[in-house]
Amino acid sequence: MVPFIADAALLPSPLPTTEAIALSEDVLKEYPGRRIVRIGEFVIKYGFYVSLNEGHTMRFLKQHSTVPIPEVYALYSTPTENVHMPTNYIIMENVPGESLQSCWCTLGSEAKNKITDQLRGYFTQLRRIPHQGYFGVVGKRPFEDGMFWQLDDTESNDTNHKQSSGPFESEQQMIEAILSKYHLAYPEFRKCGFYKRHFPEIVGDSAPVFSHSDFQRKNVIIREDGVAVLIDWEAAGWYPAFWEYAVAHFACDWRDDWYIWISRVLDEYPNHFVWVDTIFRELWS
C-alpha cells in the first residue's frame, strides 16, 4: 500500500518521529498489537494490528464528503522486530472536545436534537457517495470488520477453513460469508441451516451504501463549537443498507435513551436488526 505524507505546509507542526511515538506516555487506548497515543496536535494509531485502510478511507471521505472527520497527515509502515507483519502508522489530527459517550447523560433534549440532526446529515451524505459495484472497503479491498476473517497460507493449508472477507459482488454473497463463518465456528450446530434458508430472504439483495459500521457514542467527538466529529473509521466501507442500523443497535448497551435517538440519525431496519443481533451474539458468545 502506497505511503502518504501530507505537505509540510499543511501540518500544524512537524510530524512526531517513530521514536517519539514509541516513548509517548499520553496513551489513549492500548490493545495487543495496537496503540493510540496523543502528541501535541496529533493522534497516532500504530501497531502491527493497525490497518492503513482506515487512513485511506478517511482521505477518500475528505474528497467525497464534507462530513467532519480528523485530518490525516501521514500513513506509513516500518518493520516490526520479531513479527512477520509491519508496524503501521496513522498520524491524524487531534480533535479537541468531549466524546458523546461521556457527555450524553448530561445533555437536555434540545442539545440531543442538535447533535443528532448533525449526525443525520452526515449519514445522509455517506449514503449519497456513489457505490463502486461491490461490498467491501475503499480500493476494492476486503472487509476488516470482526464478522469476517481470512486465513492465509501461513495459518492454514485447509481450503475448507478459508473464510472470505470480500469484496463481494452482492449482498447475498456477503450474507453467505457470515453464515459460512457461523458454520465453521459451530459445525455441529444445525441452527445454521435455518439461518441459511431464511436470513437471505429477510435481507434481500440491495445495492451497497457507504457506512461507518461502528456508529457508537464513543466514536463521536463534540468540539467546543458544538460540531460533532466522527472518528474510528477502521470498519467503514460499502455495506447493505440495513447494516449501519443493525450494528449500531448491536453495540447499544440499552441502559439509557440512546437507542431511541439512533432512529433519528439512521433509517430504521428493526427486522434486520433482530436477525443480525441473534447471529452476532451467538457467534461471539
UniProtKB/TrEMBL annotation:
<dbReference type="InterPro" id="IPR011009">
    <property type="entry name" value="Kinase-like_dom_sf"/>
</dbReference>
<dbReference type="InterPro" id="IPR051678">
    <property type="entry name" value="AGP_Transferase"/>
</dbReference>
<feature type="domain" description="Aminoglycoside phosphotransferase">
    <location>
        <begin position="53"/>
        <end position="256"/>
    </location>
</feature>
<protein>
    <recommendedName>
        <fullName>Aminoglycoside phosphotransferase domain-containing protein</fullName>
    </recommendedName>
</protein>
<dbReference type="InterPro" id="IPR002575">
    <property type="entry name" value="Aminoglycoside_PTrfase"/>
</dbReference>
<dbReference type="Pfam" id="PF01636">
    <property type="entry name" value="APH"/>
</dbReference>
